[in-house]
């Protein structure tokens, strides 16, 4: 389909709309009040308060209502009507009237104002263009094109709704030429995702209904063959809109985990989960525990508690990891005052058989100083190393979304080796040799190549769960950012089948991936004189060498993929995390469950 721009028609009334905007901390993790004897337990197990006395904010996430209605666009009543248009849609006849049926009807209803304004403002329908028309007593406008542009349309709708204090919004596309029925559903999903995502990000709410009411979506094809055929509302569309909300909640959750400062988000709490035991499925409501900070294992356990019908959680402390011989992971964690916690969530469908078993493994460094090979100098970005747990955020965000969707036919293991890479007298030194849980030895020639060391034991653990496919995600190398830039993640896999699956999923999500080679000859640079391998090679081909390292810890019978997301995990311009990877992973899991039947 052609690229899309947007027209917002804003209808103002004599009384102000009840739309309120609440701006607060980006951190939407709550400090939950204690209602149980756990208060005494907590005071005994947390030896110090959060560094700097910064606490997570207790903010109720905004709610949003999506409904699909098949109505005449000119008869719709609300605050904003958003009309997606292409350059072709703005074609005029000899009397300067719109040839497009939808635009012609709207313009006629508005007495020619639409045509007049578009001419005065030189609005031609080019990508990214938008114009706003304010009319007493009427609606709104904006623009998209494939997943990303249509999401952009949804985000612009929210921006316009905020600016004009709207409480109800309708979205219509002037044409949907070239869109098949499935594509129209995908378009609806993309627009709804953009609205959900933008609304949650700005923490907007409505005084009366606690959300933005998106009343209407109609896609009309004005091509010659399908002129005036309407996009039918019904269960399929309603399902897509709910799916958009579920995925968006996971994306926002993952995004805010990454945004959390390292003094607020730590690997795990001091001993509390150890005292509670390994299994955290349903015997305790984690939300009843108050913490002066948040941590990855608590957030993971809370997912299992919230969706206890499909999730169980296993949290291993350092001693339990030592029993499993996770020397590579524990070597990285050794220097930190915050102890490591190994997270394992398991999703099983509420009913029906399990036809395929998958694992998602995420790098979980809540802060990376570089260790004794400390990050120094311009461009080292040590101040941003809170995002070095972006892989784990993608994994946990996916888990949260799937807990709401509850896909059939698939079992999924979510695995995170959470820790910090710090400096102290107990820390790992350059030249040390560590032993991973599969028995392979690693000479640590660079303590700042720590993520692969934690992933090594996590991948061995994943293979031991009997899974058929594994995808690991990590902010692993600067080399991948140099190769692909800040917007594209690198994909490494020996499996063409798995590559096809993930790229099909990314086509739906709109996230950008690029497959890079696993050049086996580069492994020569990883040989050690005292161990099976070193943990990093030369500067050339750094992302490939890192992927080859991870490959040493995956069973040959298991289909495996590594995604290096060091670039797209963070948006430098917005100084914020992106929630990258979650939408693609959710789509991949769902497709695996359906295709396995």
Automatic annotation (TrEMBL):
MF annotations from Gene Ontology: manganese ion binding; metalloaminopeptidase activity
Gene3D superfamilies: Leucine Aminopeptidase, subunit E, domain 1, Zn peptidases
Residues in coiled coil: none
GO biological process: proteolysis
This protein's GO CC annotations: cytoplasm
Leader sequence residues: none
Family stated for the protein in its record: Belongs to the peptidase M17 family.
Protein name: Cytosol aminopeptidase domain-containing protein
Organism whose genome encodes this protein: Vigna mungo
